[in-house]
Amino acid sequence: MQTLTDPHHLKLLGHPQRLGILRYLMKQSATLSQLGTYFGQSAAHIRHHVKLLEQAGLVALTDPPPEHNHLEKYYRAFSETWLIQFAVLPESTENVVLVMASKDLAAHRLVEDFRQKQTGLSLLMLPLNSLDGLIKLRQGICQMATCHLKEPESGQYNRSFVRHLFPGQEMAVLTMYQREEGLIVQPGNPLGIHTLADLAREDVRFINRERGSGIRLWLDQALKEEGISPNEVSGYEMEAPSHAEVARVIQKGEAGAGLGIAAAARSLGLDFIPLFEEPYELVIPADLIADPHYTPFFDHLNSSEFRAAVQSLDGYLVPATSGQLDWVS
Prior knowledge:
Blueprint: H1 7-13, H2 16-27, H3 32-39, H4 43-55, E1 59-62, E2 74-77, E3 96-101, H5 105-115, E4 121-126, H6 130-139, E5 144-147, H7 159-165, E6 171-185, E7 206-209, H8 214-226, E8 239-240, H9 243-251, E9 257-261, H10 262-267, E10 271-285, H11 286-289, H12 295-301, H13 304-311, E11 316-317, E12 325-328
Parallel strand pairs: 3-4, 3-5, 7-8, 7-9
Antiparallel strand pairs: 1-2, 5-10, 6-9, 6-10, 6-11, 6-12
Helix pairs in contact: 2-4, 3-4
């Protein structure tokens, strides 16, 4: 894999059109047609540059924004791009940047809604799964990360992972909301899939999530408890980078089932079999909580406006504990 100091990347970013596209995708996700409209170019012209950036690992497919057209693919600057963020910062008049690692639909909604407030604080999303997000937070690539990693022994979420990755450092875990997770299947559930045990059937092809994602960690533990070997699950090694991509693979008929959130299934008219609800939390260094630069973000996060936006999404619930801080050290 190339590194971001590779001359190949420097050559790619030496082209003003590609640099402009990358800057835009660091601010928000977009389709080829949306990029074409913004830059006054045809979608075919934009596609050429986006594909080069994608091949270089600088942009990647991501979940579509809520209430947007799901028929087109959305692109976002890939996580490793932020290693050169001081050279390729998004064009903005805002003077404070807050980077959050997350792939979640409601977190994306948070970013989009907060951008409209023009508070002088720019909130940017780094599309990473839970484990990779915590690692990038530890490396200083981002300032906070959403997380839903279940600890097999205790059944508790996130705390032991935070303690392991941030030894001796005080961290805050903030409760955001809960998500409904389950099996995404084709409309009408033609294969009659109802439980995890059905994934071991010969007529069922599965699409998995990538290693490091919270749902992958949950699946591996659940299969172990059911006495099912991953080798018995056809398609176990086939991975998708997001809930939305799991849904797209199933919609295209390339798999019969996958694990994901209700919102991803329903956005494409697929059926959803609920299995469990999980807390979705935000991990933040303790000193950032008290920094006045970031007060507008926390005010919005705890606002009735944001809670209402989350509740409007399929399969999301805002519990009474939303906004509660748990200190971990």
